[in-house]
Design goal:
Length: 378
Amino acid sequence: MSWQPPPYPYDRLNELKVHGERFDGGLIDLSIGTPFDAPPDVALVAMASSDAERGYPPSIGLPAVRHAASDWLQRRFGAEVPASHIAATIGTKEFVVSVPRYLALRSDRRDTVLYPEISYPSYAMGAELAGLRSVAVPVDSNWCLDLSAVDAADVERALCLWVNTPGNPAGGLDDLAAIAEWSKRTGVTVLSDECYIEFTWDGRYRTGETPGATLLAHTTDNVISLHSLSKRSNFAGARFGFFAGDPELVHFLSEVRKHAGNMVPGPVQHGAIAALGDDVHVEAQRQRYEQRLSLVATQLTAYGIETAMPDGGFYLWVPAPDGDAWAFVAWLAREVGVLASPGEFYGVAGSGHIRLAMVASTDQLQAIEARLGQAAPI
């Protein structure tokens, strides 16, 4: 039988959206991490005035955008990565899904993608679409990777390991120095998805003016770090990201992607240059997300649903009463007019939790308190 794509996870929530219609202000959709706030004006102006619409942009990225990414890594995170070791990508999801297939072209014996057991579903899907094995790596009580739990036979077969710090959905912060050492010891390529790096709340992972941690601060050998403007700059619709790290890997992937026709539109690259050079809008966004996380966590806890702040990211990872996430999601939609994602979207190990994305206005989120006050018991 031919392969059939599974249902797209978020499509399974569509039938619950109708419940929001009976609430003043409508549905508060916190199910998908689609940015609500505006992108920076400097990026929009740069896109509109780029005069880059006619020519084909270089697949690897304009020299100026690669230098902007290099400057950002050094300025914000203290990672010295030359522009020649950086390449552009069309957002980051297409990179996540396609990179296992490309890496497999370099290996005739490694056929396994390791990924966190609670994580972004595209890590496993990339392996499936490439015809590779996917093996979930257990996480500990802090939602961090437990690499000691990976079977030695799977390590031997591993093509790559996905790391996501801060993590989606649970907000965990992995020990990146230990992961760099593990990669050196095992020879396994590490792909570090760092799209939430600017939204790190735990002070243990921040030093001085550095707002977060990147694997590239520890090593660039046999590792790739992946970054996105979708979350940092509310730029999801423009589709810009970049990957950086091991020069041989970056060169190989850039050449393959050139043949595949992967090109970020020229105007978008000019917008990205402006966005990467501006930290003011990011600091404002950091404050918004931290305030919203605290607001909703306080509301739920006051209602009797114990909710902790994450160590990073802009999601609340909330234990479901009685461990039934789908029942909790349905109750929130029906009684509160809030749409959440059940934890099973991010792996079977997450099935006792729900995820709430802080991607609504503060006014909308403040309305949750009054709705909870009128809700029927769970």
